[in-house]
């Protein structure tokens, strides 16, 4: 089957969704450039591998939902969406090695979403495994996006993704953070921007994506391995953790879970331009700065609350004495690069 335009999806709707996707994509590109600079010279700052992985997965899911339109349901996970987009009656583009690529994306998602992101703090693991994984996933996502013509909403004729992992390796000592340290670093970085500063260096989507990833990872760890199905959605995971004693830091636990799910839905499905209009007719930049930033800050505090409970129960605090894991001597930096 030759890839075609998405069925039953009006062009105007696709264009609006594509504009929403671009907000996420622009920040993802910024994070990729940051990591490449840190990879080339450790004085540029610490590598942000965990948020890079989390945000790339979020961007890929948003894009696949966009091109599948009404064929994608809320219950579909990223692997489901990729299978739909590359096979069966909803097929819209080709994969050169479909089985291998589906396995790569599924296993990457398991590492990130099922509590294995911080399976070890050993720098050799973080650099030897998560580093190539993050850049490979980013390259794959770029290739998928390149299959589409953004103005028409149609896949390019003969759209085909040929994906081969590149096994990128670090050269020399690098500063590597654990997931919790990276989240704190992102939060500090975003707070260096004042209300009148240019916002093009903000990493709000990265912080939000990592927040929600670690909230789910903490909830899964609280419940225990093997208790929940691997494809359990966000809400059932939180409900199971609450039933097992994890404190949800809201006046009402069910209401708190609903609010957490709403923030995650905004990240994955949200129409930012529509949300900005609904918040008093403001532009998207103002909406992000005045409302969305506050939502992410609340989720950040919830995330730390969850992680603290898990650490207190399990009696494990995985931070090094100075909060950093290194492969060699390097200068300690916090809060990202200074703005130029």
Description:
- The protein has 340 residues and is mainly alpha-helical.
- It has 2 domains: 11-175; 178-326, no CATH class.
- 58% of the residues lie in helices and 4% in strands.
- The chain is built from 11 helices and 6 strands.
- The protein has helices at 11-40, 49-68, 78-86, 98-113, 123-145, 179-191, 204-223, 234-243, 253-269, 272-278, 284-314; strands spanning 94-95, 148-149, 154-155, 160-161, 175-176, 325-326.
- Strands 1-4 form a two-stranded parallel ribbon.
- The protein starts with 10 loop residues before the first helix and ends in a 14-residue tail after the last strand.
- The model is unreliable at 1-12, 117-121 and 317-340 (pLDDT under 50).
Which terms summarize this structure?
mainly alpha; disordered N terminus; 340 residues; disordered C terminus; 58% helix; 2 domains; 11 helices; 6 strands; globular; two-stranded parallel sheet; two-stranded antiparallel sheet
* Low-pLDDT regions: 1-12, 117-121, 317-340
Helix amount: 55-70%
- The total of beta strands comes to 6
**SSE order in H/E notation?**
HHHEHHEEEEHHHHHHE
End-to-end separation in angstroms reads: 49 Å
Please report which band the strand proportion falls in: under 5%, 5-15%, 15-25%, 25-35%, 35-45% or over 45%: under 5%
Rg from alpha-carbon coordinates = 20 Å
Read across the widest sheet, the strand sequence of neighbours is 1-4
How many DSSP H or I helices? 11
C-alpha geometry: globular
Question: How many structural domains?
Answer: 2
The mean pLDDT is 78
Structural class: mainly alpha
Q: How would a crystallographer describe the biggest sheet?
A: 2 strands, parallel
């Amino acid at each position: 089957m030759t890839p075609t335009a998405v069925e039953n999806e009006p062009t105007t709707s696709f264009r609006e969704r594509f504009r929403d996707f671009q907000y996420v994509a622009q920040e993802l590109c910024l994070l990729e450039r940051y990591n490449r600079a840190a990879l080339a010279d450790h004085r540029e700052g610490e590598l942000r591998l965990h948020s890079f992985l989390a945000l790339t997965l979020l961007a890929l899911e948003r894009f696949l939902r966009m091109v599948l339109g009404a064929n994608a349901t809320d219950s579909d996970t990223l692997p489901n969406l990729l299978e739909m987009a590359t096979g069966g009656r909803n097929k819209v583009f080709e994969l050169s090695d479909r089985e291998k690529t589906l396995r790569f994306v599924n296993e990457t998602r398991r590492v990130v979403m099922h509590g294995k992101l911080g399976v070890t703090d050993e720098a050799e693991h973080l650099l030897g495994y998560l580093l190539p994984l993050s850049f490979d996933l980013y390259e794959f996502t770029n290739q998928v996006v390149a299959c589409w013509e953004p103005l028409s909403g149609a896949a390019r004729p003969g759209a085909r993704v040929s994906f081969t992992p590149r096994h990128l390796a670090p050269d020399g000592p690098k500063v590597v953070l654990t997931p919790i340290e990276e989240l704190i670093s992102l939060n500090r970085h975003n707070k260096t921007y004042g209300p009148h500063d240019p916002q093009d260096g903000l990493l709000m989507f990265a912080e939000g994506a990592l927040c929600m990833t670690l909230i789910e990872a903490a909830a899964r760890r609280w419940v225990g391995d093997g208790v929940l199905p691997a494809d359990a959605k966000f809400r059932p995971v939180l409900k199971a953790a609450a039933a097992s004693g994890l404190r949800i830091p809201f006046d009402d636990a069910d209401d708190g879970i609903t609010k957490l799910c709403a923030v995650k839905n905004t990240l994955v499905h949200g129409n930012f331009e529509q949300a900005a209009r609904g918040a008093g007719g403001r532009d998207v930049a103002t909406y992000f700065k005045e409302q969305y930033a506050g939502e992410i800050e609340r989720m950040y505090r919830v995330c730390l609350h969850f992680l603290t409970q898990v650490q207190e129960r399990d009696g494990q605090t995985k931070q090094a004495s100075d909060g950093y894991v290194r492969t060699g001597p390097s200068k300690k930096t916090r809060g990202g690069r200074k703005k130029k």
